[in-house]
Each structure stands twice: as C-alpha cells, then as structure tokens.
Design brief:
The complex is a heterodimer.
Chain A (H helix, E strand, L loop, with lengths): L3 E2 L14 E5 L5 E7 L2 E8 L5 H16 L8 E5 L5 H18 L3 E4 L1 H6 L8 E9 L2 E10 L2 E4 L4 E3 L1 H11 L3 E4 L1 H5 L1 H7 L2 E3 L9 H13 L18 H5 L14
Helix pairs in contact in A: 1-2
Chain B lengths: L10 H4 L10 E6 L4 E8 L3 E9 L1 H5 L6 H23 L6 E9 L3 H18 L3 E5 H12 L7 E6 L4 E8 L2 E7 L5 H11 L6 H9 L23 H13 L5 H27 L3 E5 L6 H14 L2 E3 L3 H4 L4 H14 L21
Parallel strand pairs in B: 1-4, 4-5, 6-9, 9-10
Antiparallel strand pairs in B: 1-2, 2-3, 6-7, 7-8
The chains are: A alpha/beta, B alpha/beta.
Bound molecules: zinc ion.
Chain lengths: 256, 357
C-alpha cells in the first residue's frame, strides 16, 4: 500500500549513463524496449498472437539491430513481474533473468499494473488498472497521481468483477479504468459505477513505461540480482486450490 | 549523416555455422517435466558437469506432476542450476560454444521456461541455439557413458510418458519397432502404486515393496507377449485392481512383485526379440523406468542369454538430466546446424523417424 511509482525525477547524475532493456510479456501482448537518459530509444510491440517464446528474442535482436545497440552495451534488465497470464509472463521472466545472468547485469522488476497506471498519471481521477486474469477473474490495483508519477492506494488483488465495482463504489469519486480486464468487463463495470475508460492502445502494459520507471530506479541503484527477482502470481496453482475438493481424480500427470 | 533502414538478417541469422569438434563445449538445459537440469558437455560425451534439481517433493502430495507447480519451480531454480553447472565444470563461461535445450516433448509451461532462457543465453553470448528432442536425448544417454557402442542398437525407452522400442540405425536415424498402445510403463507403475496406497512416485516405491514379496505369487497376464513388438499395460493394471478386489487380504508386497515381474517380462522379451529381428549389435535401456532394479537385472541377464551386448546407463543418466541434452545437442549441431530463435516449444514432439517424412 502507498507504493509510489515513478516520483519526482532528479535528472541524470553527471556521467551516469545506464541503458535499460525492458521485457514485458504479462498479457497477450509482447513488448520490448531499450531506453535510458534520453527516454525510450526503441520499442517493439505486438499485441496479437500469444506466440511469446517465438517472438521475444527475435524482437530483442531486431530492436538492438535497428537502434544500433549491442546487447553487451545494456547496463540493466527490466522486466514486468506480473500479475498476468502465467505462461506468457514466465517466458519474459525466464528470458530476462537469463540475459541478466549471462551479461552479469542487475535487474529491476515492475508490476504490470504499475505499468498500466503510470501513463495515466496526468489524470486527477482514481485510476483502476485491471488485467484480465481469465476464468472469471481480474487482477487489479488502484492509483492516484502524485508529482512525477502515481501512487498505489490499494493492494494488488486477484478478484471478481463485482469485487472491483464494490471497491470503486465504496471509494466514491471519479474513476478512469485501464487495461484489457477493464475492457473485457466494460459493461459489467458500467452497470455499477460511472467510470471512463482509457484508450484501447493503453490497454496492455508496455515496455516503454517499463524502461522509463526502471531507469529512475536504476539511477538510485534500486535493483536486484536475477536470483532475488520474484514473480507476482497473486493466485495459487490450480492443484493447491482444488485439491481439497477432488476425490480420487488427480490433477497431475506421470513423469515422462 | 545518412540513415539506412536495415532490413538485413538478424545477428543470429548472420552468424557463421560453428565448427563442431571434440573440444566444442555445449551447455545443455532440461526443463520438460519435473527436473530442472543444466550440464556442460565437451565433444558430445565428456561430461564436465551435470546438475539436476528434482521437484519430486513438491509434487508427491498430488500423486503426480502438477504442471503449474513445475513451471514455477523451473523459473525459480534454473538460474542457480545453470550457474552451478558452469562453476562445477571448472571452465570459463566464454568456453561455451552453443546452448542446447529440450524443445519437446513435455509439459508446455515447463518447456517454455527452459526454451526462453536458452534463447536469451544464446543472444547474450552470441552463440548458436540447438533445440533438442527429449526422446532423442534419452537415446544418447548411453553414448555418453560408452562411446564405443556399435550401431545398430535396439533401445528400450521406458518412462512415465513413453514406452518404445527404437532401432538406432545411425546417429539421428531411428526406426520405431514398437510402442505402447495404451498406458506407458511408468504410468502403470504410478497407477498401481496409487491403488496399493504406496504413494508417489510409483516406480521406486513398487521396486522397493517388490523386494519384500514373491514375484511368482500371482500370475498376472503378459499382454501381447507373443504378438509383435507393441506393448499394452492397461489390461495388466485392471487385473491388479480386480485381484485386490477379489482378494482383499492379498499381500501388498506379493502384488507389487508379481505386477513388476509381469511388466519386466514383457519389456525384456520384446527387446531381445527386436534385437534378433534386426540383427542389432546391442541392446540399451533408457528413460526413468530403467532405474527399476528388477528390470536392470533381467535386461542384463537376457542379453547374456541371447549372446548380445546389453548396456545399462547409470541411474543418473537414465532419469532426466541435461548431460544427455548437451550430448544430443552436440550431434544435432554437427549434422543440422543451429535452431532458429523463433522456434516454438513443442509439447507433442515425436522422435524423428526414418520413412516418416
Ligand atoms: Zn525423460
């Protein structure tokens, strides 16, 4: 609670130049960016297909080639740590951690919901960042603008749409919703609360805010090594949820 | 200043095809099921290090591998496992010339962790990627421990997911001689162990229980024993269940021993027959079930009786490991060159067979 995303920037300390490679695969979109003190230098983004493992590293190579940056010039690996779709999310996390390990680089992990909220920081409404968690659930968190960024004013939650709308009704005030989960449940949300929806092109977390936010953290050396980076699942594996109610039937498979 | 938009090939596509020789070091990565493994192998069979982190304890309470739990554990364990493989090999990571990884068959979520990490290492180090078929890698496990094995060989590949007899005609050239028409042998072990209340994983538990029982106590059917080279285990599993329903007081040890004997008899008899049919130079055991002590003893004895060379890889090489991935990767890199960075993970990948297109 009360985590600030972004925050007032002090400008780049003299002589410190950190190039960040950002990797984001928490939703159906795959997004890769390179950036640093001059902002986002390059962005590769595909919102269709879910072919994360096929596209991610060719995307990184393509971006390096077009921006004329050698992978060895990168100084920090940033990654979206979720919440999101587990399988796709892990493709990005596994790649980011392996890149950091092989290149001996520190990492910055940022939540997908923070990435959704940050581009809306010029709004004075309550910001609801909402990702479609499938199977009737949403991942969401609420934010308010602060100088230079946004501040998270709720827990990161896995919940049903009615939990989100109840939360918004209880808080009152004007709301802007962003994310693929908000769009999917647009009608259900509008039935309960008067809200505005952010533009569709903002509805997936992007590696552009990722490198922007990571750069600020990297300058403060607020980073972790690949061993310490923890994904944010917000949901237990199915087997652990359902084990108690199953009888006889096993969710598991034999070892190949 | 002129600016040219380059649409040329990517770095990985421009890279020259590597020379693959006796001192080429390959890093192997395996995450297809419930073992997270990494290994450095030089020249295809000199194992410099082989690190395996097993998740068996995480899955035991569920009676099998839970895919989501496996995927999470792979992501958490892979980096330290790779780091340890490099340290234990005692060479600098700059000596690694290629990254080999299991691309299938296996659990999709689990495979993706390894494949994604391997691709990233390949880009970071600017070294070729080699996608490896997990089943083919099991065939190579024997060569790691005995490069003098002569072809053609008959390999009995038995695990929780597979039961097959493969003729290894040459490196990369295989012919399927027989396979299970229903359950895999390891699956039968798991199901019977669960039914007997022994727990999970079934193979080692039945193996242990069987040492206390009489393998001739109950005459379970040997399905399709004299009928071709295919296998069937679902009928045997049903017989075990029926026997216990009819004889609730039957000794668990006797049931386990008799069941195991029935499985082993069929596996061994068909392997020897297959070797005889194709004139093989030897018979080889592979896959997780080949850790079964009764199978190992019977396999060796049958080879001896038939006057044919039998080879049993060590337990560590029979079960899933990354040395076999690095080894198979070395051979594949030499014959086919690198794998594209846009290659998918293939959960249902099959063994590349002769005459199968
Ligand atoms: Zn295996």
């Amino acid at each position: 609670m009360g985590t600030t995303v972004g925050g007032a920037r002090n400008g780049c300390p003299q002589g410190v130049v950190v190039l960040i490679l950002g990797i984001e695969t928490a939703t159906e979109q795959i997004s890769v960016a390179i950036g640093g003190h001059e902002g986002v230098i390059g962005l590769f983004e595909v919102a269709r297909g879910r072919r994360h493992v096929e596209m991610l590293m060719p995307g990184v190579e393509f971006l390096c080639q077009q921006t004329d940056i050698e992978i060895t010039e990168i100084g920090c690996i940033a990654v979206d740590v979720g919440p999101g779709l587990f399988t796709g999310m892990r493709v990005g996390l596994a790649a980011a951690k392996a890149l950091a390990q092989a290149l001996h680089l520190p990492m910055v992990g940022i939540s997908s919901l923070d990435l959704l909220a940050f581009p809306l920081r010029y709004s004075d409404r309550l910001i609801a960042a909402v990702i479609d968690a499938r199977r009737g659930e949403l991942f969401y968190a609420l934010y308010l603008q602060v100088p230079g960024g946004v501040q998270r004013v709720s827990e990161l939650r896995a919940a049903r749409c009615e939990d989100l709308t109840a939360d918004l009704v209880a808080r009152g005030g004007e709301v802007v919703c962003v994310g693929d989960g908000a769009l999917r449940y647009r009608d259900e949300i509008l039935d309960e609360v008067r809200v505005e929806f952010a533009e569709q092109f903002l509805s997936h977390p992007s590696a552009a805010p990722l490198v922007t936010l990571a750069h600020a953290k990297a300058l403060r050396e607020d980073w972790v090594n690949p061993w310490e980076l923890q994904p944010m699942y917000l949901r237990k594996p199915d087997a652990q949820i359902n084990w108690a109610v199953r009888d006889g039937g096993s969710p598991a498979v034999s070892r190949p | 200043m002129t600016h040219t938009f380059r649409t040329s090939l990517l770095a990985s596509e421009l890279r020259e095809r590597p020379v693959v020789g006796p001192d080429t070091v390959v890093l192997g990565i395996e995450t297809s099921c419930d073992e997270t493994a990494a290994s450095l192998v030089m020249g295809g069979n000199d194992v410099l290090s082989s690190v395996v982190s097993s998740q068996i304890d995480l899955h035991a309470q569920y009676g099998g591998v839970v895919p989501e739990i496996a995927s999470r554990a792979h992501l958490e364990t892979l980096n330290p496992v790779i780091a340890r493989a490099i340290v234990e090999a005692g060479i600098d990571e700059s000596r690694i010339e290629a990254v080999a990884v299991t691309i299938g068959p296996g659990l999709i979520g689990a495979l993706l962790v390894g494949v994604s990490a391997a691709k990233a290492l390949s880009v970071a180090w600017n070294k070729p990627l080699v996608g490896v078929n997990h089943l083919e890698a099991h065939l190579y496990a024997a060569f790691i421990e005995d490069p003098s094995l002569e072809l053609p060989l008959v390999v009995l590949l038995v695990s929780g997911g597979h039961t097959m007899l493969v003729e290894m005609v040459d490196h990369g050239r295989y012919r399927l001689l027989g396979q299970t028409v229903d359950d895999a042998a390891g699956e039968a072990f798991d199901k019977v162990a669960r039914f007997l209340g022994l727990g999970y994983p079934g193979g080692p538990l039945i193996d242990h229980e069987a040492t206390l029982g009489d393998p001739t106590a109950i005459r379970f059917p040997r399905a399709m024993l004299h009928d071709g080279l295919n296998f069937s285990f679902s009928g045997l599993k049903t017989s075990v269940v029926n026997h216990i329903r009819q004889h609730p007081d039957a000794s668990t040890a006797d049931v386990a021993a008799s069941f195991q004997q029935a499985v082993v008899d069929v596996l061994v008899a068909k392997t020897v027959r297959a070797a005889d049919q194709i004139g093989a130079r030897g018979i080889v055991l592979g896959g997780g079930v080949s850790a079964n002590s009764q199978l190992r003893t019977a396999f060796q004895q049958a080879g001896h009786d038939a006057g044919i060379r039998s080879f049993l890889p060590t337990m560590a090489m029979c079960t899933d490991n990354a040395a076999m991935i690095a080894s198979a990767g070395w051979y594949r890199l030499r014959s086919d060159g690198p794998t594209s960075l846009s290659a998918p993970a293939s959960p249902n990948l099959r063994l590349p067979l002769l005459g199968a297109g």
